[in-house]
């Protein structure tokens, strides 16, 4: 029995040892497996982390690409809008060009038709002599400037009953109007150192500087009664005037002698009344009174004793500020002697007062 117990105990001890060895082996195996699993998990974690980081970088790159694409998209939109605007401008310009082209074509056709009509007109003109256009109505002729329209300008006046007429400048704005200007100096554009024939017939431009003519003055002043007005202007812009009643210019046979019914009145010195009953003289004459004055003063006028300057004038003299005694002057005009106070402008004019 005891032997059996010992055998049993021996067997149990052997079993236990075997189980312990087996258990130890199992434990080592599990630990090894766990280590292997841990290593695998670590490897998987590392790989996963790397993949996550790579994916993150890719996502970041994609986001940047999307941002760039958005910017490019806006640029494309702006470019498209600019192109559309340019296309609209081109379309408008094309429309304008088309319209202009149509106009040019129409004008070319018009010009061609006009040229054809002009040629036809020239071809037909010799054949239509009997069908002349209505003649221009005759110009209105007035007996004096008092009858002319109340506006200064050039008008046609009748000289006498024969129907002869001439153009004259009518001054309608000063001293009541109705004045016939027969002498005007304003800029030196006309030379007044002229011959007897030129002073008789007149010269210059009626709308500018001119001399009407002695014969016309004779015809006017012997048909009706006239007064004389003289307006003076110096180079400072100051003006003065003087009027003479009952002026008459005699015939050429009497050398266009001048007469007054009285002395002058006005704010200018009376430097013409001394010339009453004097004949007209010009530098080209060879006989007559005071011919030397016409030559010395380089002008035609009713000159009178030019050895004196008192109460004298030289309204038909040489234009300018430095002509001296030969210049345009009026004694004691504007409180200055003639040599030192030349005149910039003069007007001599007559106006009808009554019938003779």
Task: Outline the structure in words.
With 356 residues, the chain is of the alpha+beta class. The chain has two domains: 78-125; 141-355, Gamma Fibrinogen, chain A, domain 1 (Gamma Fibrinogen, Chain A, domain 1), CATH 3.90.215.10. It is built from four helices and eleven strands. Strands 1, 2, 3, 4, 5, 6, 7, 8, 9, 10 and 11 form an eleven-stranded mixed sheet that branches. A hairpin with a 5-residue loop joins β5 and β6. Mean pLDDT is 83; it is low at 127-132.
Topology summary:
Blueprint: H1 2-124, E1 141-142, E2 153-158, E3 165-171, E4 179-185, H2 196-201, E5 203-204, E6 210-211, H3 214-223, E7 224-234, E8 239-249, E9 258-259, E10 265-266, H4 291-296, E11 343-355
Parallel strand pairs: 1-2
Antiparallel strand pairs: 2-3, 3-4, 4-6, 4-11, 5-6, 7-8, 7-11, 8-9, 8-10
């Amino acid at each position: 029995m005891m032997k059996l117990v010992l055998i049993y105990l021996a067997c149990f001890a052997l079993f236990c040892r075997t189980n312990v060895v087996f258990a130890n082996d199992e434990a080592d195996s599990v630990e090894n497996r766990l280590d292997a699993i841990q290593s695998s998990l670590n490897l998987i974690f590392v790989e996963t982390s790397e993949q996550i980081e790579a994916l993150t970088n890719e996502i970041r790159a994609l986001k940047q690409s999307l941002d760039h694409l958005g910017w490019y998209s806006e640029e494309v939109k702006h470019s498209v809008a600019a192109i559309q605007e340019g296309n609209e401008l081109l379309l408008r310009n094309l429309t304008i060009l088309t319209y202009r082209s149509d106009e040019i074509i129409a004008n070319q056709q018009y010009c061609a038709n006009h040229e054809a009509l002009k040629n036809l007109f020239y071809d037909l003109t010799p054949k239509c002599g009997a069908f002349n256009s209505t003649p221009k109505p005759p110009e209105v002729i007035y007996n004096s400037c008092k009858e002319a329209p109340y506006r200064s300008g050039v008008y046609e006046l009748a000289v006498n009953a024969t129907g002869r007429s001439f153009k004259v400048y009518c001054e309608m704005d000063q001293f009541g109007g109705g004045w016939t200007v027969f002498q005007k100096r304003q800029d030196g554009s006309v030379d007044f150192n002229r011959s007897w024939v030129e002073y008789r017939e007149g010269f210059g431009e009626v709308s500018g500087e001119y001399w009407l003519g002695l014969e016309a003055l004779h015809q006017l002043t012997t048909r009706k009664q006239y007064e004389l007005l003289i307006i003076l202007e110096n180079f400072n812009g100051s003006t003065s005037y003087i009027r003479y009643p009952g002026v008459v210019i005699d015939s050429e046979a009497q050398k266009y002698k001048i007469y007054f019914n009285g002395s002058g009145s006005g704010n200018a010195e009376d430097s013409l009344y001394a010339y009453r009953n004097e004949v007209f003289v010009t530098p080209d004459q060879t006989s007559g009174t005071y011919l030397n004055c016409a030559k010395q003063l380089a002008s035609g006028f009713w000159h009178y004793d030019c050895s004196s300057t008192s109460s004298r004038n030289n309204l038909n003299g040489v234009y300018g500020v430095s002509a001296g005694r030969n210049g345009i002057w009026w004694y004691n005009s504007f409180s200055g002697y003639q040599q030192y106070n030349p005149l910039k402008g003069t007007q001599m004019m007559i106006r009808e007062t009554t019938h003779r």
